[in-house]
Write a structure and sequence with these properties.
The chain is of the alpha+beta class and 151 residues long. It has five helices and four strands; from the N terminus they run αααααββββ. Helices cover 36% and strands 23% of the residues.
Length: 151
Amino acid sequence: MFRNAARPTRRHMFAVGCIAALGIGAAAVPAAAASTADDNDRYTAQEIHTFLEDFYGEQGPGDFARTYGISPQLKEKVAANPEFDVLLCAQNIPVSIDIGAVTTAQSARVGWATVSTYWNGGSDKADFTAYVDLDATRPIQLLDVDCGSDG
C-alpha cells in the first residue's frame, strides 16, 4: 500500500511530461519567433557568430558539424586534403578556440570571422578566416575556410 502511494502513476508521469514539454515548447516559441534574421532573409552577424561558436566548440567541429554544417564545395575541399584538417587549418586538435567579431557583406551575401586556435597549453595561437553564407532561406553553413599563408 505504501509502495503504490509513494510512486507516481503512469498517468501522473504522462501529465507531468506533457506539461513540461508544453512549458519548454512555449518558452522556445518566443526565441524562434524573434529570429534576428534581417528583412532581406539574411543571417545577422550575431547569428553567424553563434553558429561559428556552436560549429567549432571548444576544440573543433564534431562529426555532425562536419557532415551537415559545411557546404558541398567545402566538403570537396576537405575530401581532397585527407592529411590536413581543412576546417581547423591544422593537423592536430587545438587546446581551445575563440571566434572573433563577425563582418557581413550584404552585397556579397557572405559573412566571416577570424577563428583563433590555441596550441601547446594555450601559449601558441593561430588564426584563420571562416566564411558563412548569409542566405537565411537555407540552413546556415560554413562556406569556406581561408588558412592564410600558414595553412
